[in-house]
Design the sequence.
């Protein structure tokens, strides 16, 4: 009884970092902001009356780069402040519910030492269990997740990195609430004829925070150089998003890094689609890429961006497009080799019609269908790299 009572007495809000760590991080953030101000305050007026044209261009480029650096330093400071102030809340489960959980797990051969629920500031909840097996029989963490789901009346699953087996010693296990939606993905690719590798690169990954991210980059030209350029763009975007950068700022930072290295070296497109599987909200950013399509039954929405690829202008327009997705929706992301492979001038419009008429339901079959259709229309020729990504979204059954 004493042990169970201690479970239910946990009810307080705590900072993610202790006071000393928070103070240091906030100090670093202030330093980054002060450094950003020094870049922003670069004088506009020049002392000499006459400037060589080349020197004027270099001065302008220097001022532009200082502005970019200031924006990026401010973004780093924002991330530091967010981490420093991030908090989580220990919430009591209630004595009756706690007893039920502990008893159910004990009957299944799992002994509990600690049990509590954590709610982050974004409303994201997870359950922490300090437990071990009490018998000789092997126990899988999924068994604990199933028991918790039934007892707590919510669908729970082990978090990424959670140990898969319970041992004789106490270990900590993290369980997250299952998202409202689940997805299936399918891809199809074709390499430009006479080339060994595709100039397109893509990435599809899901985090235990309930977000699915899809990235697609089409390198300028084809072959190994285009492949390397687009690969760098995808990998940089992954790392920046993982670090905590907002998608718009991540795109600007990649664009800046390309400009610093010389824009002619890498002028790749970038398509990003990020879906919050807890809410169904999709966020899309497009920089020089082909249109993205959202299919709902026989209705198809075409989402286009008329901006140019990365590495051309100092600042790019990367305003996100937000859509509320629903059960049964499909998202199609394509490289421009697909639309270019159709009749000249009608590629993107024709794709809307093709997707609308499609009766297939499996994303992999859909991706293959589009790719094969375009190759047939091109009389078997593959004049450019082609990549098709299809994601289907469905609500989880209660």
Sequence:
């Amino acid at each position: 009884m004493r042990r169970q009572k201690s479970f239910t007495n946990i009810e307080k809000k705590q900072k993610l970092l202790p006071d000393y760590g928070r103070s240091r991080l906030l100090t670093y953030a202030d330093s980054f902001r002060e450094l950003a101000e020094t870049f922003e305050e670069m004088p506009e007026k020049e002392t000499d009356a006459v400037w060589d044209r080349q020197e004027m261009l270099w001065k302008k480029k220097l001022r532009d780069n200082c502005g970019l650096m200031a924006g990026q330093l401010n973004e780093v400071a924002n991330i530091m402040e967010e981490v420093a102030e991030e908090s989580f809340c220990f919430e009591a489960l209630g004595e009756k519910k706690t007893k039920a959980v502990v008893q159910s797990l004990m009957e299944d051969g799992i002994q509990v030492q600690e049990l509590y629920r954590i709610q982050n500031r974004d409303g994201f909840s997870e359950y922490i269990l300090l437990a071990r097996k009490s018998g000789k029989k092997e126990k899988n963490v999924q068994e604990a997740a199933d028991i918790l789901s039934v007892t707590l009346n919510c669908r729970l699953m082990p978090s990424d990195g959670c140990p898969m087996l319970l041992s004789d010693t106490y270990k900590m296990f993290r369980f997250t609430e299952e998202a409202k939606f689940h997805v299936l993905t399918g891809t199809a690719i074709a390499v430009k004829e006479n080339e060994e590798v595709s100039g397109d690169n893509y990435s599809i990954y899901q985090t235990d925070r309930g977000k699915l991210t899809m990235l697609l980059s089409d390198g300028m030209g084809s072959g190994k150089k285009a492949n390397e350029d687009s690969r760098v763009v995808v990998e940089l975007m992954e790392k920046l998003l993982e670090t905590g950068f907002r998608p718009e700022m991540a795109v600007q930072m990649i664009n800046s890094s390309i400009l610093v290295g010389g824009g002619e070296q890498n002028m790749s497109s970038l398509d990003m689609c990020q879906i919050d599987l807890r809410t169904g909200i999709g966020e899309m950013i497009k920089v020089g890429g082909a249109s993205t399509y959202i299919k709902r039954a026989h209705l198809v929405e075409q989402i286009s961006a008329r901006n140019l690829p990365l590495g051309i202008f100092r600042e790019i327009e990367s305003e996100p497009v937000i859509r509320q997705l629903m059960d049964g929706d499909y998202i199609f992301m394509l490289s421009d080799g697909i639309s270019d492979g159709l009749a000249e001038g009608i590629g993107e419009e024709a794709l809307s019609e093709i997707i609308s008429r499609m009766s297939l339901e499996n994303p992999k079959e859909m991706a293959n269908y589009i790719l094969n259709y375009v190759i047939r229309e091109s009389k078997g020729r593959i004049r450019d790299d082609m990549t098709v990504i299809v994601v289907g979204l469905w609500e989880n059954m209660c």
Q: What stands out?
A: Residues 127 and 357 are 44 Å apart (CA to CA). The longest strand covers residues 110-120.
